[in-house]
Structure formats: C-alpha cells, structure tokens
Backbone:
C-alpha cells in the first residue's frame, strides 16, 4: 500500500504535468496512442523473453520520435499520426500474442494496471524517472508554454521549437510507459486528460492551472487506491472513476454558481419565510 | 548592440521572390528600403503576399530568392541576434483562445527569445512597463480569453515590445475587431511610433487607417505596385484605381489556385 501510494503520487504528478501541454495542443489522444505502442513493446518483451518494461520504453520512444519526424517532413495531420501510432502498436501486440499462444497474466497486469503489486525496485525506478521528467519540465516550462501558445511566434523569438518538441515527445513517451503499471494501457489517457480538463475550467494563469491539475491527479490517485483497498475493486478503475467524479462535481458546481450569479437560481432567503 | 542611425536602414529588401511548393509565385521581385522611425503601411488584397513578405523578413520562410536585410545584416546569417530587436504580432486568428495563461505570463513570453539575461525583478518591471504602455495594468491576472478582441491585440503588442525592440511587425492586427476598438488600437500604434521611437511595419486592408497612420506605403500584389510617401499614394486617384483593380485580379487568381489545389472546397461563383 505504501509503495502503491508513493509511485501513484509520482505518476499522477508527471501525467498531469505532461498532459497539460498535450491537452492544450489538442493532442489529448496522443497519450492513448503511445500507451498502445507501449502495449506492442511489452508484447515484444514477453515474446522474446526480455524484461517487458524496457522493450516498451525502447519501442515507444522509437515510434514516438519516428512519427514526429514523419509528421514534420511529410505533413501528416496530428490526428492521423495518432491513429497510425495507436493501430500499429495494438497490431504488433495482437500478432505477437497470437504467436506466443494467448494472453499471459503479465500482459493483463499491463493492460489494466497492477499498482498494488508494485515492487520496491519498480517504486524506486518510477520515483527516479518522475523526478527527472519533472525537473526537465520545470526547466523548459516557459518555452513549452510559449510554443503551446503559438509556435510561430515562439520561432520568431528565436526559440528552437523543433528541438523543444522532440524533447517533449521523449518526456511524454517515458511518462506513458512509466505510468502503465499504475492504471494500465487502456486507462492511461484518462489520467493525462481528466485532471487537466478539470483544472483548465477554473485555473487563472498557466502556473496555477498546472498546480491545480497536479493536485487533482494526486487526490484522484490517493483516493482511488484507498477506495480500491477498502472496497476490493480494481485500483486502475477506482482511480479513473474518482478522477471522473471530480471532473463532474467541478462542472456541476460551476454551473450552479453560474446560475446563482445570473439569477436563474435564488439562494434561500430566511427573511421571506413565514413564522 | 546594433547601431541604428538614419544612415542605416532598418529593413532592406532587394529583388525578393518566393514560390510556394515551387508552383505558386507569391512574391515577385519585391524591393524596398525602410528607414528608422518610419511607420510603413503594407497594403494589398488577400493573397497579395503580405504575410509571405513578413515570413521572409522574420526568417520563417528561409528558401526565398533575393536579399532580406535587417539592421544592415542578412537575416538568415544572424537570425537570432537580429530578431532579438524585432517584435512581431501575428494575425488575430492564429491564437488559441482557451489558453489558461494570464496576461502577465503571456507578455513575459516576449522576454524568452532575448539574448540578454534578465533578472527576475527586471523582467517583472519590463512586463509592468509594457502593460502600462498598452493600458492593461488592471487586467494582469485575467486569462487571455476573458479579454475583448481589442484588449487581446494590446496584450500581443505588449508581448512584442516587452524586450524593447527597434522594429515592430504587425500582420493585419485589427482584423475582426470592432471600429471603436480599432481607433484606440491605432492611437496606441501612433504613440509607440512617435513617443517610443519604434519603427513599425503594419499590414492592413483598412486604407483609411493606413492613410492616417503611415508616413510610407508599400502597395503589393505579388509585385510591388507602389512604394513611397503615403500622401503621394493616397493623393493619386489613378494609384487607388489600380489598387482596387489589382485587388479584384488577386481575388480571382486565389480562387483559381484554390480550385486547382482543392476542388471540393471551392464554392462555385
């Protein structure tokens, strides 16, 4: 439980930090696509009897950089590059699974997450990678923010947009593979998108939005793990559903406040009650 | 530091031509010189090559033919140094409206590309000064999408001038903005040119505004049709007639190009 909470908090932090830029660049599904590529990479590892996490890192990095290079040089629309990544990753996985005679327990744990079974070695790796990713984001965050705001203006200002984008893609790929142990291939994009969408609804300023988003992600993960422990349900599902619940509560609260402000709903007035 | 005297032109364009995909000639043999403290209005119809010209000046389109010099030096040979003296405001439509950064954060982007390393307090002072010049000090914690179109353009101007540039390039900055706001915006442009001594290149379809603001005019429609004093251009009826005729021709040419490259998206006329 302790290891699950530590790695959960680390992964929540990097997912929401990377996710903020992905969401604002309208690449919300990029995380989903990379997780499917990681699935292909995991299958390669299991098929070749190598350590699957490392083959997932290698395969995802190569695919992410390759598709970015292709998008740059032959101008593929971003949503199409997501579709190419997603389907090719999944197809690789399916072919290798069928060749190796069906699904193994390991593969299921990657598909749906297995945070409660995480080892001390995995926790150390996740925390180390998370600190490294977060440090690079903190160093580059103003440049990434400017590129996300308007890449043409950033280029005119002398920022090396291409280089910054490649670094960002590498960080995003590592984040996705690192996070797969927590929520699994199928639910990773929820952790990247939901806290950010919620934070953007009421964040005043980029920095504040990022902090709120990290806060929501951490609360979702901690609550999700506790709920899964108490109710004996799958932790990945509990984490994502907690995140969805926070998102829905935010929208409902926001709409009620809007209605109160515009006068559609009146607050209870005790003075009008008859005695 | 660049030495800018009136003997040194700010912008020198010599026989500049640009083709898109080696097939569409967007700029054809354009030449002109801009002196310090000029306010140059670039006019021309849609598709005339105004944005292409800016992209060549800013080094965004490096594969042009001809020469583009800023502050006496070739742009592509020393792009970073030269652009640290340039502020650029793009067309209004290219900005993502739901971006959560506040005004202070957006204006501070302008300091990122500068070659000078600013201390945090100096950077804050510069941002505050830029906000004061454009009259947005009270809006510093607002998000970009909470401002009106005119206020958003003021933010982009403040961002473009926060690092004290010598030259401001404004690409159709008032498109989609109501008339009252446009007037206030033009007052700001006049003030920056007269009081802050910033040389300005401004492209616009608003001939009335250009006639009131600019001391120099360049009328382009792929080719250079006129370059000189604004009063000479606006005082010549034949010149204005030629402008409107070439605007119509450009519209037809653009329509034909779009029809050729993407037949489904071109409405029938």
Residues:
């Amino acid at each position: 439980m302790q290891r699950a909470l530590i790695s959960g908090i680390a992964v929540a932090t990097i997912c929401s930090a990377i996710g903020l830029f992905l969401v604002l660049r309208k690449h919300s599904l990029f995380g989903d696509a990379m997780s499917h590529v990681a699935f292909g990479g995991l299958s390669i590892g299991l098929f070749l009897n190598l350590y699957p996490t490392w083959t997932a890192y290698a395969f995802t990095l190569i695919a992410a950089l390759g598709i970015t290079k292709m998008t740059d040089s032959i101008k593929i629309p971003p949503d199409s590059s997501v579709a190419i990544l997603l389907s090719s990753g999944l197809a690789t996985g399916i072919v290798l699974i069928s060749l190796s005679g069906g699904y193994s327990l390991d593969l299921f744990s990657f598909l749906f997450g297995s945070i409660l079974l995480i080892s001390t070695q995995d926790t150390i790796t996740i925390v180390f990678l998370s600190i490294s990713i977060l440090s690079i984001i903190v160093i580059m965050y103003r440049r990434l923010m400017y590129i996300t705001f308007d890449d043409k203006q950033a280029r005119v200002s002398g920022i090396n947009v291409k280089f910054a984008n490649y670094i960002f893609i590498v960080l995003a790929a590592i984040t996705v593979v690192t996070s797969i142990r927590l929520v699994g291939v199928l639910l990773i994009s929820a952790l990247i998108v939901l806290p950010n969408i919620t934070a953007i609804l009421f964040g005043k300023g980029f920095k504040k939005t990022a902090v709120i988003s990290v806060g929501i992600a951490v609360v979702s993960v901690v609550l999700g793990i506790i709920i899964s422990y108490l109710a004996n349900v799958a932790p990945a599902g509990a984490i994502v559903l907690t995140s969805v619940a926070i998102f829905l509560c935010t929208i409902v609260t926001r709409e009620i406040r809007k209605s109160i402000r515009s006068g559609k709903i009146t607050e209870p007035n005790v003075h009008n009650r008859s005695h | 530091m660049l030495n800018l005297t009136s003997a040194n032109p700010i912008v020198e364009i010599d026989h500049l031509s640009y083709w898109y995909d080696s097939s569409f000639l967007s700029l054809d043999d354009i030449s002109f010189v801009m002196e310090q403290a000029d306010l140059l209005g670039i006019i021309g119809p849609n598709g005339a090559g105004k944005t292409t010209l800016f992209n060549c000046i800013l080094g965004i389109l490096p594969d042009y033919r001809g020469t583009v010099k800023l502050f006496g030096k070739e742009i592509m040979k020393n792009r970073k140094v030269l652009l640290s003296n340039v502020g650029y405001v793009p067309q209004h439509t290219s900005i993502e409206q739901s971006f959560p950064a506040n005004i202070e954060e957006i204006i501070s982007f302008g300091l990122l590309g500068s070659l000078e390393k600013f201390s945090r307090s100096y950077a804050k002072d510069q941002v505050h000064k830029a906000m004061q010049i454009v009259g947005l000090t009270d809006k510093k914690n607002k998000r970009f999408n909470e401002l009106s179109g005119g206020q958003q353009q003021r933010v982009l101007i403040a961002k473009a001038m926060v690092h004290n540039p010598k030259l401001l390039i404004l690409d159709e900055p008032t498109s989609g903005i109501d008339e009252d706001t446009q007037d206030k915006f033009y007052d700001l442009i006049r003030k920056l040119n007269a009081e802050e001594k910033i040389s300005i290149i401004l492209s616009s379809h608003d001939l009335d505004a250009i006639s009131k603001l600019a001391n120099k005019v360049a009328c382009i429609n792929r080719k250079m049709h006129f370059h000189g004093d604004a009063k000479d251009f606006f005082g010549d009826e034949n010149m204005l007639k030629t402008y409107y005729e070439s605007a119509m021709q450009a519209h037809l040419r653009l329509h034909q190009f779009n029809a050729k490259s993407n037949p489904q998206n071109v409405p029938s006329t």
Summary: Chain B touches chain A through 32 residues (CB under 8 Å). Residues 1-6, 265-269 of chain B have pLDDT under 50 and may be disordered. The radius of gyration of chain B is 19 Å.
